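Reviewer comment 2.1 asked that we show a complete input and output for one of the modelled complexes. We chose the pyridoxal-5'-phosphate case, as it is the one discussed in the main text.
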Amino acid sequence: MTTADANTATTATNAELFARAQAAIPGGVNSPVRAFRSVGGTPRFLVSARGPYVTDAEGREYVDLVAGWGPAILGHANPEVIAAVQDAASRGLSFGASTPVETELAELIEQRVAPVEKLRLVSTGTEATMSAIRLARGFTGRDLLVKFAGHYHGHSDGLLAEAGSGLATFALPGSAGVPADVAALTLVVPYNDLDALRAVFAEHGDRIAAVITEAAAANMGVVPPLPGFNRDLVDLAHAHGALVISDEVLTGFRVSKAGWWGIEAGTDAAYTPDLVTFGKVVGGGMPVAALGGRAEIMERLAPLGPVYQAGTLSGNPVAVAAGVTTLRLADDAVYAKLDEVSGLLQREVSAALSAEGVAHGVQVAGNLFSFLFGEAVADGAHDYAGVLAQESWRYAPFFHAMLDAGVSLPPSVFEAWFVTAAHDEDAVSRIVDALPAAARAAASARPP
Ligand code: PLP
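Response of the prediction step:
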């Protein structure tokens, strides 16, 4: 523990802090997965983070494989990013007016992701997808939206929708509080299933405004698109006059310098989405997200066009300083390092599980990865039903064995693992050393 970390350690334990938080905040958390419901136990209350490590309120350090749920590609508290934030903060926190740095961030993104000709900044991924959908509806004059089962695009009403009982039927609310009439504007289709998508377009094609898809799914664990799936879905949507919103909130600038689009660009599977959403890395850990795309569509946004969209904190100068600095620092060497650490951990975790006889599948999309437990999924999964077929109960003991050994994994089996370019040999070897005991815990787990 460094002096700085020691200064932020509290005299309260994680359990005491959680009890206090639960009295003041629903479930003690400001976003549900943080409550550890799917793995049990007490969430760690974090007080600082540096490089590949996070430190909890008890002063305990963990190697971090959550990375703030994605943004920290450079590692936590990168000195140049922190300096840029401090410099911006010293000049004022929020102006509610245009700033030069906003244009710089838009230009950086447009230079790297060709389908993005114009871009608007917002504060969260949820806002980005919500605004992209309104824009697609405003542009096409149509109301229906297609999404894929198991894809997450934030918590706006129309996206919290679950598949109805048959293909090509309207969705049901995916949360209490979502009106059935709103959910009914969404059609939910199995991922990677072009035939199902064709069926939906055959029945409702002239009413569909857009298909929204994670460029590579990573919110049900990692499930990459089958080769050519993104391309074929764009072709199909366009044949019916619908738009495609490629959600790169999670993958954008994490899996490559040009996101998932950049991985498939220049291959047989290349595709051109109409709109793209970003978040996480574009804010470098601060609240910045964005929607961008074809100029002709983007120019339908107010004040140029009739589609309203706005935000007091949109393009906040302190947040944008973190995003611009992060993107500038994210060079080829950073992505090579992310790929290297990711590949190494995939192999080490897989070897540890195999050594204990735990059947498993390894799911990979760029440097994002996750594991599926059980014989039934040893060959991997291509959709949500496939992911649900795993022995998910093996994950909680695995997770806790890692946590006890000082490694912080995502507290749910249905999440991607995130590496950073700051994961050096020491951090990686701490993870590798923890694996045998965790694999043994997974091996001896019993179904509930
Ligand atoms: N889209 C995707 C693909 C995401 O992974 C997320 C968040 O995890 C969102 C949208 C929502 O972003 P936010 O949590 O910033 O609202």
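The first helix runs from residue 3 to 8. We note this here for comparison with the apo prediction described in Section 3.2.
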